[in-house]
Structure formats: C-alpha cells, structure tokens
C-alpha cells in the first residue's frame, strides 16, 4: 500500500437521532466532534436513519400489493379496450 494517501480508519460513534440510538462502527468519516461513550472518547457523527430505525429493517415497511395496482389500472383504463 502506498503511504500517506489512505484516510485514517478508526472507531466512530454514530447517533441515530430519530430513535436516540448510539453505536460504534469502524469508519473513515472525517468529523471535528467527539463524544465520551462507554468510558472512551470517539469521533461523533449524527445520522437520521440507521438499520435500527429504517422501516425495511424493523419490519414496519408497508408493502404495496401488485394485485391492487393492477386492479386500479384496469379500473382507470379498462374502458379503452
């Protein structure tokens, strides 16, 4: 590997502000903020959505049924046959 061209990889605390959840992940993200977390000081980044709060991962995602879309289409355009 070439020296001096790679960003610093370190542990970073991410804060999911939508559910007030903190987690530590290895990252190269650059930030000037730090936070004390579990007795250690880490770089700190706020995010709005993570796998803890995203509807797809929590199982709360609404799924549109394909059959409903087809029925709606036929209702609107069925008379043009």
Instruction: Tell me what portion of residues adopts beta-strand conformation.
Output: 25-35%
Q: Terminal Cα separation, in Å?
A: 65 Å
Rg (C-alpha, Å): 22 Å
Number of helices: 2
Largest sheet: 4 strands, mixed
Spatially, the strands of the biggest sheet line up as: 2-1-4-3
Shape: elongated
Low-pLDDT ranges: none
Number of strands: 4
Instruction: Tell me the structural class.
Output: alpha+beta
- What is the share of helical residues? 10-25%
Q: How many domains make up the coordinates? A: 1
- Helix and strand sequence: EEEEHH
What's the assembly state of these chains? single chain
Mean pLDDT equals 83
Descriptive account of the structure:
There is one protein chain. By secondary structure, the chain is α+β, with helices and mostly antiparallel strands. It has one domain. The chain has helices at 55-58, 66-77; strands spanning 10-16, 21-27, 34-37, 40-47. Strand 3 (34-37) and strand 4 form a beta hairpin. This is Large ribosomal subunit protein bL31B. It comes from Vibrio tritonius.
Tags for this entry?
81 residues; alpha+beta; 4-stranded mixed sheet; 2 helices; 4 strands; 20% helix; ribosomal protein; Ribosomal_bL28/bL31-like_sf; Ribosomal_bL31_sf; Large ribosomal subunit protein bL31B; ribonucleoprotein
What is the secondary structure topology, with strand pairs?
Elements: E1 10-16, E2 21-27, E3 34-37, E4 40-47, H1 55-58, H2 66-77
Parallel strand pairs: 1-4
Antiparallel strand pairs: 1-2, 3-4
């Amino acid at each position: 590997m070439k020296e001096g061209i790679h960003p610093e990889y370190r542990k970073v605390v991410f804060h999911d502000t939508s559910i007030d959840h903190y987690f530590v992940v290895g990252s190269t993200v650059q930030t000037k903020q730090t936070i004390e977390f579990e007795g250690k000081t880490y770089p700190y980044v706020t995010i709005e959505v993570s796998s803890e709060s995203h509807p797809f991962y929590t199982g709360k995602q609404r799924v549109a049924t394909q059959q409903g879309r087809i029925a709606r289409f036929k209702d609107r355009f069925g008379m043009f046959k």
